[in-house]
Amino acid sequence: KNQVEQSPQSLIILEGKNCTLQCNYTVSPFSNLRWYKQDTGRGPVSLTIMTFSENTKSNGRYTATLDADTKQSSLHITASQLSDSASYICVVSGKSTFGDGTTLTVKP
Amino acid sequence: SAVISQKPSRDICQRGTSLTIQCQVDSQVTMMFWYRQQPGQSLTLIATANQGSEATYESGFVIDKFPISRPNLTFSTLTVSNMSPEDSSIYLCSVDGTGNNNEQFFGPGTRLTVL
């Protein structure tokens, strides 16, 4: 069964700190892996998209990594800001399979 | 990129009634997708809507409960029929980006509460 598992389920950090979110998947065939940010009451917004051959992709303070051999990805957030408080969703395609997300809370 | 709008943004409905959600895209797209996001959970694909043909529903979703219209390449509607409290969710419209960038864009969602 195609699955995408994210950890941790929730995370609280202080403003200015870094954090890393994890995504493990068993989706096959693999086409791409995407990280989304979903603010409360909003639709998901794309942060990064990586294909099989890409190991890392950055978007400002967000850096995603992909290890296609171990089927793992991570999203690293640098120098967190209060506006980073959101749910972060990992999506793996072939057929889009969504993780349950990590809820990040950044506190002042 | 694609800009997607949805109407209504939220609604509170009575059990047994139906609600139609509208999705408008600022560009022509072949496929439009409807997702459901139940409280505290991630997105689940309800169906894929192609213009000019019947929607393709995922396992667990049926046309009688979630009828979909796709009259043209920029617009779609999803109806939640005979609602029950279990239908309380966020419903999201989505489209694939043009080109080869594997992008997927989402609307802002419609937050539905069924009493």
What does this structure look like?
The complex is a heterodimer of chains A (108) and B (115). Chain A is mainly β. Helix content of chain A is 0%, strand content 57%. Chain A has strands spanning 4-7, 10-14, 19-25, 32-38, 45-51, 56-59, 62-67, 72-77, 86-93, 97-98, 102-107. In chain A, strands 2, 4, 5, 9, 10 and 11 form a 6-stranded mixed beta sheet that branches. A 5-stranded antiparallel beta sheet of chain A has the order 1-3-8-7-6, with no helix packed on it. In chain A, β4 (32-38) and β5 form a beta hairpin. Chain A is globular and about 40 Å long. The relative contact order of chain A is 0.35. The model of chain A has no long low-confidence stretch (mean pLDDT 93). With 115 residues, chain B is mostly beta strands. In chain B, 0% of the residues lie in helices and 51% in strands. Chain B has strands spanning 4-7, 10-13, 19-25, 31-37, 43-50, 56-57, 68-72, 75-80, 89-96, 104-106, 110-114. Chain B starts with a strand and ends with a strand.
SSE layout:
The complex is a heterodimer of chains A (108) and B (115).
Chain A: E1 4-7, E2 10-14, E3 19-25, E4 32-38, E5 45-51, E6 56-59, E7 62-67, E8 72-77, E9 86-93, E10 97-98, E11 102-107
Parallel strand pairs in A: 2-11
Antiparallel strand pairs in A: 1-3, 3-8, 4-5, 4-9, 6-7, 7-8, 9-10, 9-11
Chain B: E1 4-7, E2 10-13, E3 19-25, E4 31-37, E5 43-50, E6 56-57, E7 68-72, E8 75-80, E9 89-96, E10 104-106, E11 110-114
Parallel strand pairs in B: 2-11
Antiparallel strand pairs in B: 1-3, 3-8, 4-5, 4-9, 5-6, 7-8, 9-10, 9-11
